[in-house]
Specification:
mainly alpha; two-stranded antiparallel sheet; 19 helices; 55% helix; globular
């Protein structure tokens, strides 16, 4: 009894994990400018799409001065610097497509990029934390947080579809905020034996996960599959598990051996990791290993939150021990909604990767209209893989099927 009382007093809170009350994992009010000393970085980073298109980006970066990162003091300065250096790195690496990649990132980019990455605890490659969480501004600061009022700070080749892809993903993160806010309520309710509080919080989480799925549906409105597959995707790709760059990339001035890093992936969002740990979803074998590795691509405070949720008393066991129909139903509903979100993500991946990949194989030796040509020019090494390097459909279906195992035994046949 005393142990339960002390558990109630030491309440679990999101305060120490860099989670915003209003925005969740999204970085509040990202900076749009760095101190003037860093203008040479921003001058190039803000022009990555046009400099790639004109094949000038590598030349411009090679001529860039070597700047020290020591004048970057605040967290948001470091996040904008990481975003800018990431965009330059992706453009530099993939400017000429899969057949003319580079083996080395020049020291005037690699050294400050490495320093900024070390200070943030992020890898030196474009991550979800850069491209989505720290890459937005409101056109009207007093206006709503929606597609019409949002724009990117830094872009990549692909035009409006790039904005659509990153902004829709940002809105999925926003839709998850009520769920995140309710995770401490669930954990504290389990510790204190408050069945009603846990049930109410799980009902809120279910609704929030449904809202995430609804936000994800905007992808079909704002992102053109042929542009995503044919143009954008290579600029989100990394140099690990990628046959275009089998040895990885040398960061000149950092170390002489090549380093391997995975490209951007939905698995780098902390959201589903938090829900999995809360609901007791277990990912085994290679899918579990990949998801665990993706946590190294998250801001350290967010990774720590996932780990700390995993250390809490089991929610699933608590639900099974109570004789509460409302609690049981709320838990099952949460798993159902998480399963539906993962199933819908598979639908998205099919439309944006699997179907275009099949079409690209068909078209490879034929000249078709411009949209079809765009698909056929896409990198062959990525046909069956996500930008994070996973064999994508097998991986996603495995993760979805492992989610089903979280259902309570009596409805395990769902």
């Amino acid at each position: 009894m005393a142990a339960a009382e002390s558990d109630c007093k030491a309440l679990f809170s999101l305060d120490s994990y860099h989670v915003s009350e209003e925005l969740g994992f999204i970085l509040p009010d990202p900076l749009e400018e760095l101190p003037p000393y860093y203008q040479p970085w921003m001058d190039i980073a803000l022009r990555v799409p046009e400099l790639v298109h004109s094949h000038e980006l590598r030349f411009r970066i090679n001529k860039m001065p070597l700047l020290s990162s020591q004048f970057l003091q605040k967290h948001r300065e470091l996040r904008l610097a990481h975003l800018a250096l990431s965009a330059m790195t992706m453009g530099y690496t993939w400017q000429e497509g899969e057949n003319n990649t580079v083996e080395m990132l020049p020291h005037n980019l690699a050294v400050p990029y490495w320093e900024v990455s070390q200070r943030l605890g992020l890898p030196p490659i474009l991550t979800h934390a850069d491209a989505v969480l720290a890459n937005w501004r409101k056109k009207d600061p007093e206006g709503p947080f929606d597609m019409e009022n949002l724009e990117l700070l830094v872009s990549l080749p692909g035009g409006d579809s790039v904005r659509g892809f990153f902004m829709v993903t940002l809105l999925v993160e926003l839709a998850a905020v009520p769920a995140l806010r309710n995770i401490p309520t669930v954990i504290n309710g389990v510790r204190c034996g408050d069945t009603e509080a846990v049930a109410r919080a799980l009902e809120e989480i279910s609704q929030s996960i449904q809202d995430m799925t609804d936000a994800l549906k905007l992808m079909h409105v704002y992102v053109e599959p042929s542009v995503f597959y044919g143009i954008m995707r290579i600029y989100l790709s990394g140099w690990k598990d990628n046959t275009c760059m089998p040895r990885g990339l040398v960061y000149e001035g950092v170390q002489t051996e090549p380093m391997e890093y995975s490209g951007g992936s939905a698995a780098q969002s902390s959201l589903l990791h938090c829900f999995d740990e809360l609901l007791g979803v277990k990912h085994k074998a290679s899918s579990g290993a990949f998801l665990t590795r993706m946590r190294n691509y998250m801001p350290p405070a967010h990774k720590k939150l996932i780990q700390d949720i995993s250390l809490q008393p089991s929610l699933k066991s608590f639900v099974q021990q109570q004789s509460s129909a409302r609690l049981t139903q709320a838990f099952q509903h949460c798993v159902t909604k998480l399963l539906a979100l993962r199933s819908y993500h598979i639908n998205i991946v099919s439309r944006y990767i699997t179907v275009p990949a099949a079409r690209a194989r068909q078209l490879r030796d034929h000249s078709q209209d411009s949209k079809e040509e765009m698909i056929s020019r896409a990198p062959t090494a990525l046909e069956e893989r996500g930008t994070g390097g996973s064999g994508i459909m097998t991986f996603l279906k495995t993760v979805r099927d492992q989610t089903k195992d979280a259902f309570l035994p009596e409805t395990n046949s769902k």
